Amino acid sequence: MTHIALSNITKRFGAVTAVDGVSLDIAAGEFVCLLGASGCGKTTLLRILAGFTRPDSGEVVVNGKRVDLLPPHKREVGFVFQSYALFPTKTVADNIGFGLAVRGRPRAETARRVAELCELTRLEGMEGRYPHELSGGQQQRVALARALATQPSMLLLDEPLSALDAKIRAHLRDEIRAVVDRLKITTVYVTHDQEEALSIADRVAVMEAGRLLQVDLPMNIYLHPHRRFVADFVGASNMLPGRLLQDSRVEVDGLRLELPVPEPLRAAADLTVCIRPEHVVLRRPDGGTSGGKCTVDGITFAGPTVRARFVTAGGQSLIADVPTHEWLTLGIRQGDPALWDVRKDTPILLPAADG
Amino acid sequence: MFRLVRHLPAYAATAAMGLLLLLFIALPVGMVLFESLRLAGPIPLPDLARITEQALNRLDPEERQRLAARWEASLKPEERTAAIAGGLELLGRQVPWDTKAAFNEQAQRAENALATMNPAERRRFDAIYPLAAVTLHKRIPLAFRLRDTLTPAEFDQLREGTRQGYGLEHYVAVFTSARLRTAFRNSLLLSGMAAVLATSVGFAIAYGINRGAIGLRHLVRYLTLIPLVSPPVVVATASILLFGRNGLVTKGLLQETLGWIDADVTNLYGWGGVILAQLLGHIPHAFILLDNVLSKHDGRLEEAAAGHGAGPWQVFLRVTLPMSRPGLVRSVILVFVLVMTDFGNPLIIGKGIPVLAGILYDEMVGFQNTPLAAALAVWMILPAVSIYLLVERLGRRLRFASAVGSPPELPMPRPARIGLSAVAWGVVALTLLLYGAIVATSFVKIWRVDHTLTLAWYTTGGVAGFVSQLHGVAVVWESVKVAALAAPIGGILAVALAYLVERARPLGGNALGFIALLPAILPGVILGVGYVVAFNLPLGMKGLALTGSVWILVLNILFANLFIGYLAGRAVLQRYDAAIDEAAESLGASLWQRFAWVTLPIMRHALVLGSLYIFVHGLTTLSAVIFLVSPTHKLASVEIFGAAESGHYGAASAISVTILLIVFVVMGANHWMERRGPVWARLGALAAGPTPAGGGERG
C-alpha cells in the first residue's frame, strides 16, 4: 500500500499561482478528497501527482521514493478523467486492457484481468461494446476499470461524476468507494461538490487559491471549520459579528450564548460567529422568553426542510432550516414576528477578520 | 534535460517534416517569386526596338536608308506579317488577329488591318514599320555591320536580344504591354462574373436544399458535385459538342431541325461559352462552401425574426443573407481565384479571348519565358488576396456558425420553392446533358459526322485514319499509377503533420502548418511553375534534376493537396478529447505507441479523406502538372486537354469518361465502407463527431 508525501508544491502558470506551497501527507490506503471551487488548484495538484504537470518547486515522494521527475507513463498511477477519455475506436474490453497491452502482457492474462474488473465494476456483458454505445454512468465505470487494470499504486480521480445527474452521482460515488475499499488502494479524489466529499472521503482537504485551508475528517470540516472560507464553502452558514464577554460567554446580536471558546480566540474582543441554519431554533413570539426578536420575511419549501429567512432586531438577515413537520406545527407565515435562538454548543467561533 | 529527452522524438519528427515541407512547398513557391524578378530571356519588344534604334543611329544616314530599303524588300511574307504585328504593338495597339492561326490567314488579316487604318494612324505606322521590321528580323546583320563600333556586351545583346538582371519589369509589363493589359482585363471580368454567378447559383441550390425546398436532396447534391471530380475541360468540350458551330443543339436542333438560327454565327464560342464553362465548372465549389455555411446556421434566428412580423422575403434579406455574408464572400473569392488561374476552358472555347492564364501557359510552354510566367502567376492571385484582406479589415467576424445548426421551421412561399427547385434541377439537367454528350462522343466514330458506334477511342489502337499518337485510354493507367503512389504517402504525411502540430506542439509548429496550407491558397499553376524552376537544375546539378521523372509528378500532386488531410486531421484532433492522449500516457504508452494505437485509429477518417482527395486531384488536375509532364511520363489530364484543344473530341471524351468512372468507383467504395463497412472502418468517422462523454444520462 502506498504512502504519498507532497512537500511544498508550487506551480505557476504565467502570472497565476495555481498551487502555492502545498504540503500534504496521505496515509497508505486512505481516501482523501481535494475539495474546492473552480480554479482553486485542486486539479493542478492532482495532475502534478500524476505527472502530467511538473511542479515549479517541491517534492512528490511515493513510498519513500521521489517521483516528481518521472513522466506519467512511469509512475504507476491510475487516472480517471472528468471526461472519461475512453478510446473511441476500441471496445470496452480493449479500453480496459490497454494498459496491459502496452506493457506487452500475454493475451490470456489480459483477458482474465479484464473479466475481473468488469465483474468488479458491474460491466459484465458490455465487453464488446464501444464507448458511444454506453451511457454516461457505464462509460465512467469503464474509465474506472481501465485505471485499475494495471494495479497501480494509487488511484486519482478528477471530478469523475460531474458530467452525470444528481441521482446517478449519489449512486456511483458509493460504488467507487466500494471498489476502492475492496482493493484497499490509496485514492485521491478531486471534486467541487461538498456533499460528495463529505460522504465518501476518509479525510477532506479544502483548497482555495492554491492553498490548503484545512485537512480533517469530514465531520470536523463541517462542524469545526477553522477558517471562515471553509465554514462558508461547506454547508450553508449564517455569519454574525460577535463579542467576547467573558471566558465562556459570547454576545451575538442581542443573544447571550454560553460557549466554550477555543484558546487562540480568548484574547480577541471581537469574533465571527458561524451558525448553521439547522442549528437555529424558531419559536412563536409567545413560545418562551429566551431568544431574540425577529421578523420572518421569506419562506422557501425544500422538501424535508423549510428554509426561513428572518431579520433580527439588530438588522441581520439570517436563515433557519426547520424540519417540515416542525414547521407545520409552528404556523408562522411570511411577515410574522418570531423568536430565534441557537441550539446549545453548536455555533462555530472564528477569528473576526480572516480569509 | 528531462524536458528534452521527453520531447526528443517530437523534435526529430518535426525537423523531418519541416524539411519535407520546406523543400517541396516553400522552396518552389519562393523560387517562383524569385524567378519573377529575374530579367533574363528575350528583351521585350519596346526595349529591343529602342536598342535597335540606337544601333541604327550609329550608321550614317545614307547607309541607313540603303540598308533599310534592302532589308525590307528581302522580308519573307511571314516575316512581313510579323513585322506588321510588331509595328502595331510598338504603337501600343493590340494585334487584332490570332497570332497562332495559320500564316496565310494572319497575313490576310494583317493586310486588312492596314487597309482599315485611318490616315493619321497609317502615317504613324509607316514611320515605325521599318524599325519594327529590322528589330524583329534584321538585328543580326545589323549587329555584324556595327561590330567594330560596339562593345562585346552590346554586340551580344543586339544580336541575341536577351538580357540578364533583376527587376520588376515583368510585373510592370501587365500595364505596359497591350497584349497583357487586355488579357488581364479579360481575366478580371471573366473571374468576377463567374465568381458572382457561381456563388449566386450555388447559394440558391444550397439554400433550397437546406431549407427543404428541393426534393431528392442527396441526389441533387451528388449530381451538382460531379464537375468537382471531373477531368479538366470537360465542360468546355461538352459545350462545343452541344453548342459549338457544329453542335448538337445549335446546329442539329436549332438550325437544321427548327431553322431558327445559323449555327456558324450563333454559337457558344467566345464570352458566352467561357462563362458557361467556368460557371458550371465552379458551381460545385461555391455550393460545398455555402452548403456547409447554411447547415450551421441557427434557424432560431430566422424564426425569431418571423415571430416579430417579418415576411419571408424580409427574413431572407435581413437575417439569412447577412448571416451568410462571410460564406458568400469566401465563395466569391474562392471561385474568383480558381477561374482566374484556369487556362483550360478559355483555351478550348474562348480562343478569341486572351486571358492571363492562357498567356502564362503560352509563355511557359511556347516561349520558355519562365520569369514572365512567374510574374503573371503572382498577378493572378493578387486581386483575390486584396479582396480578402479588405473584407477582413471591414468585417471582423468571419463565422456565424452556432454549435447546433438547424434549419428554421418556417414555411417557404410556393413561388420561392418552385424557383429554387427550377434552378437546382436546371443546373443538374444541364450538367447531365453536357456529361451525356461527352459519354456519347466517346462511343461514336466522329461526333455529328459519323455516328457509327465504336469502342475504338477506348482501345490502344485509336481510330483508323487519325494521328497515331492518340493511344486511347492507356494513358489513364499512367495517371492512376502516379495518383495511387501519391495518395497513401500524402495521406499519412498529412495525418502525421496534424498530430505533430496539434498534439506535440513543438516550436515552429505553426510555421509548418502555414507552409502546408500554402497550396490551398495559391493556385496550382504557381506550384507547377515553381517545381519546374526549383527542380530542373537544383543546385546546378543535373543529377538531382527531378523534371522528366515520375517523381516530380508524384511529389507535386502530393504536396499540392496535402492540406486537406492535414486540416481534416486537425479537425478530428481538436474535436476529440485531449485527455485521451493523457489517459494513454498514464497507462504507460510512449509517444509512438500513443500515435499508432490510439491516435491513428481515430484519425483513420482523416487519413482516408486526405488520401482520397490526393488521388482524385491527381487524376483530374491540369494547371499544376501541365508543365511537369514529359514524353516518358504523360498524364491523362494533359492528354485530354491536348486532344480537346486540337479538336480530337473522341479521344478527349474517352479518356475523360474513363477517369470519371475510376473516380466514381473509388468514391463509391469509400462511401460504402463508411456506411456499411465493418465497425472499425466506420469508427474513424464516428470519432470525428461529438465527444463521447455525454451529460445528464441515466446510469
Describe, in plain words, how this protein is organized in 3D:
The complex is a heterodimer of chains A (355) and B (699). Chain A is α+β, with helices and mostly antiparallel strands. Chain A contains 10 helices and 20 strands. In chain A, strand 7 (154-158), helix 6 and strand 8 form a beta-alpha-beta unit. The model of chain A has no long low-confidence stretch (mean pLDDT 89). Chain B is mainly α. Chain B has helices spanning 2-36, 45-58, 61-73, 77-90, 103-115, 119-137, 139-145, 152-160, 169-176, 178-210, 217-224, 234-243, 248-257, 271-295, 299-307, 312-340, 344-349, 356-366, 370-394, 414-443, 474-504, 509-521, 524-536, 550-560, 562-575, 579-586, 591-602, 604-620, 636-645, 649-676, 679-687, and strands spanning 41-42, 162-163, 444-446, 450-453. In chain B, strands 1-2 form a two-stranded antiparallel ribbon. Chain B has a two-stranded antiparallel sheet with strand order 3-4. In chain B, helix 1 packs across helix 19 (370-394) and helix 15 runs antiparallel to helix 16. Residues 684-699 of chain B have low confidence and may be disordered. Chain A binds chain B through residues 50-52, 54, 69, 71-75, 77-79, 81-90, 98-99, 101-103, 130-132, 135-139, 146-147, 150, 163-165, 168, 171-172, and chain B through 2, 6, 576-577, 579-580, 582-590, 593, 597-598, 601-602, 604, 679-680, 683-684, 686-687, 691-699.
Instruction: From the alpha carbons, calculate the radius of gyration of chain B and give it in angstroms.
Output: 29 Å
Instruction: Give the DSSP E fraction of chain B (strand runs of 2 or more residues).
Output: under 5%
Supply the number of helical segments of chain A: 10
Structural class of chain A: alpha+beta
Q: How far from one another are the termini of chain A?
A: 36 Å
Q: How many alpha or pi helices of chain B?
A: 31
Largest interface: A-B, 45 and 36 residues
**Spatial order of the strands forming the largest sheet of chain A:** 6-7-8-3-9-10
Strand order of the largest sheet of chain B: 1-2
Shape of chain A: elongated
Largest sheet composition of chain B: 2 strands, antiparallel
In angstroms, what is the radius of gyration of chain A? 25 Å
Q: Give the mean pLDDT of chain B.
A: 81
